[in-house]
Amino acid sequence: MNDDAQDAVGDYRYGFHDPEDSTIRFDKGLTEQVVRDISELKNEPEWMTDIRVKAYRHFAERVMPDWGNCEMLNAIDFDAITYFLRSSKGTESDWDDVPEAIKNTFDRLGIPEAEQKWLGGVTAQYESEAVYHSLRDDLEQQGVLFFDMDSGLREHPEIVKKYFCSVVPYSDNKFAALNTAVWSGGSFIYVPKGVHVEMPIQAYFRINAKNMGQFERTLIIADEGSSIHYVEGCTAPTYSTESLHSAVVELIAMEGATIRYSTVQNWSVNVYNLVTKRGIAHKNSTIEWVDGNIGSKLTMKYPAVILKGEGSHAEVISVAYSGSGQHQDAGAKIHHLASNTTSRILSKSICKNGGRSSYRGLLQVSPKAQNCRSKIVCDALVLDEDSQSDTYPTMEVANSSADLEHEASVSKVSSDQLFYLMCRGHSEDEAMGLIVNGFFEPFTRELPMEYAVELNRLLQLEMEGSIG
Amino acid sequence: MAEEVLRLSDLHVSVEGTEIIKGLSLVINQGEVHAIMGRNGSGKSTLANVLMGHPAYEITSGEIYYQGKPLVDLEVHERARAGMFLSFQYPSAIPGVQVGNFLRKSVNSVQGESALSAREFRVELKQRMELLSMDKTFLSRYVNDGFSGGEKKRLEILQMLLLQPKLAILDETDSGLDIDALKVVSEGINSMPSQTSSLIITHYQRLLDYVKPDFVHAMIDGNFVKSGGPELAIELEEKGYDWLEV
Ligand SMILES: Nc1ncnc2c1ncn2[C@@H]1O[C@H](COP(=O)(O)OP(=O)(O)O)[C@@H](O)[C@H]1O
Ligand SMILES: [Mg+2]
Q1: Is B198's C-beta closer than 6 angstroms to any atom of ligand 1?
Q2: Is there a domain that residue A52 lies in?
Q3: Residue ranges covered by each domain of chain B
Q4: Within a domain: A374
């Protein structure tokens, strides 16, 4: 699959085109002028241009992280990346370029052909866009603002200005700086006081893969006493010719609000997925990250919650699957800044065929935060000798009243479990699939049904070795 | 004459280089109930495991025929699909896999095309669970995860009833059960169709009060030292095994 993906990437064409033919694509590489041009093209207010420029300067100076997977990180060629692209046709590529292995998986998952083409980036339009619009009407009636980020900035600049970069400043890390400089797309959501959005807002099971741009930027504000569940991503393989995806997500949960943010990413294995996700939780609010990483070459992502208000709660439930050539470096960061705050982290990872998964976590309790509680559980399932799992937990606890639990385990599939399942008529691969699905179940059960079903089927296929 | 289901001839089995089964021969015909009794460590579970094809057990010589064909040609799951069933002495837990789903998947795997529809399956499942006095909350629990000994054994028997094997091997299904549970489990076993053949491994005679064997074999150190009818079970219970030792 690597080679195929590489071939397709090699076929990528670029250039700057007349806006009249509705495709705008900047030359590869990034300069301050490119950043200014992007902002101008979008007719952005001056303050946004300023943030972009400052962020660009920071990005240019900032060194690469010296942790994670340095070898892979240093292989990123920032000059070979196109930082802005707008096309009425989307990022269309040729169906013939989509790697066979991915097409195969589409077939075996039973995804209809129209959807396959759409997922493969061959067609930009897909009928479920109609669903998107009717759902938006429902939300509008409740006063919920739901826009793509560019439109959000146009329609509600005062809200965006207030919160943009308030949770993830551009100076946070090199990739947050990059995203702030060149962002496009992503979602902007504001939920008014007391409004409970009953259905998960999915940006949408299929449709969202397109919205998941290269440098998307998402901002969700849940006002007092409101609640929302936002779901992004795609369980089916998402083929991208772009090799770098660097998103920033900022969540703000006001007093008593609840935000759950669920993601499943299954990028093709040519993709670097370097994402900063952080939420700020005010008094008695809850922020939950449900985060699944199945695809990509290298993912570095540590959903974070700042427990700023007393009695607030954070939850991070994540899974990672690393197959051949993949490294999932994922985890969670929780900052207990206020008293009586609680957090729970559950991280599960599976590695196979030489894949590598790392849990990297940070738990901080500030001196003033009394009676905080946290429970961290990290379980790794290593399926063969070539694969690797490691754990890097950091705890900085400055208040002795904190009650902390940490459990970590690394296990293998036992031959007794396999034998038991095979005695019930399951082939060895099917038995592996059952065990692996069971291992991820605490994550899968948190997902909307369609994601859960497809994720299980996908893992089953992975165990049957029928995915490259 | 009844059809032959299983034939062992001069079977030798080793585990990690140590011979455990030492020249066992046995024929089981359709509908027959055979009981194997023996002390701990005599090789009863080894026999059960080797019949199902556990990779840790090596057949060093001798033959096993199932329905007239050499069994070694079949992989573990193929044996299950061909109608062999083992009720485990120590069933494995499969965390995260719900009993209900697991049962459905297993029945589909074993019965393939001829499996019941989802609706028929639910009806069947409900009946069988009632017979075994199992609450429906079982279905959403994880397979054997945190189950008591008795719960595990009930789930084994439930699986047997749903999978409808041609040859059922029951490895100490009675161990660790109180008398009420033993009765329930026995009722389950007795509800199997009369053409089912079974091989019941136990080291107590009490299960055989409820499930009547046609043949009883006394096993010592990897061999049958004596075979007989139901009366042998009673004799073994009374006299132990020492008198049989050479
Ligand atoms: N997987 C195994 N690995 C090593 N030794 C085994 C294994 N299974 C059985 N044995 C050995 O074989 C002998 C017979 O065991 P087993 O068949 O379990 O006896 P029983 O079921 O009659 O109590 C014992 O000495 C036991 O330690
Ligand atoms: Mg035994």
Answers
A1: no
A2: yes
A3: 4-244
A4: no
Q: Is the CB of B45 under 6 A from ligand 1?
A: yes
Which of A414, A423, A441 is the closest to B80 by Cβ?
Answer: A423
Band (pLDDT 50/70/90 cuts) for residue A276 is very high
H or E segment and range at residue A346:
strand A342-351
User: Do A301 and A269 form a contact (C-beta atoms < 8 A)?
Assistant: no
Say if CB B62 and CB B104 are below 8 A apart: no
* Spatial separation of the C-alpha atoms in residues B143 and B100, rounded to whole Å: 9
Report yes or no: A172 and A276 within 8 Å, Cβ to Cβ: yes
Q: Looking at the domain assignment, is residue A290 inside a domain?
A: yes
A340 in any annotated domain: no
Best residue in B52, B77, B155 for a mutation probing chain A (most A CBs within 10 Å): B77
Is A243 or B26 the better-scoring residue by pLDDT? B26
Best residue among B20, B89, B221, B225 to mutate for probing ligand 1, ranked by most atoms within 8 Å of CB: B20
Position A115 scores a pLDDT of: 61
C-alpha–C-alpha distance, residues B82 and B64, integer Å: 15
Residues B4-244, CATH architecture: 3-Layer(aba) Sandwich (3.40)
pLDDT exceeds 90 at position A329 = yes
A21-30, A218-227, A262-271, B154-163: least confident range: A21-30
Residue environment code for A374-408, b if the CB has 16+ CB neighbours within 10 A, otherwise e: bebbbbbbbbeeebebebebeeebeeeebeeeeee
Residues in chain A closer than 8 A to B110 (CB atoms): 424-425
Distance from the alpha carbon of residue B172 to the mean position of ligand 2, in angstroms: 7
Choosing from A301, A322, A340, the residue where a domain stops is A301
Q: What is the pLDDT of residue B59?
A: 97
For B111, which residue in chain A has the nearest alpha carbon?
Answer: A425
Residue B53 predicted with pLDDT over 70: yes
Q: Select the more confidently predicted residue: A15 or B84.
A: B84
Number of folded domains in chain A? 2
C-alpha B186/C-alpha A425 separation (Å) is: 24
Q: Which residue's CA is the closest to the ligand 1 atom numbered 13?
A: B41
Identify the weakest region by mean pLDDT among A103-107, A350-354, B74-78. A103-107
* Residues spanned by the domain of A465: 414-468
Note the pTM of the prediction, 2 decimals: 0.87
Does pLDDT of A11 surpass 60? Answer: no
The C-alpha atoms of residue A48 and residue A424 are separated, in whole angstroms, by 61
Domain-ending residue, one of A284, A301, A318: A301
Q: Is B137 in the pocket of ligand 1 (CB under 6 A)?
A: no
End-to-end alpha carbon distance in chain B: 35
Q: Are B109 and A426 an interchain contact pair (Cβ–Cβ within 8 Å)?
A: yes
The CB-side HSE value for A254 (13 A sphere, CA atoms) comes to 14
Q: Measure CA A319 to chain center.
A: 12
Does residue A15 register a pLDDT over 70? no
Average pLDDT, chain B: 94
Per-residue pLDDT reduced to its tens digit, A370-409: 999 999 999 999 999 999 999 999 999 999 999 999 999 9
Chain A interface mutation, best of B89, B92, B113, highest count of A Cβ atoms under 10 Å: B92
- Tens digits of residue pLDDT in B192-245: 999 999 999 998 888 998 999 999 999 999 999 999 999 999 999 888 888 888
Nearest CA in chain A to B80: A425
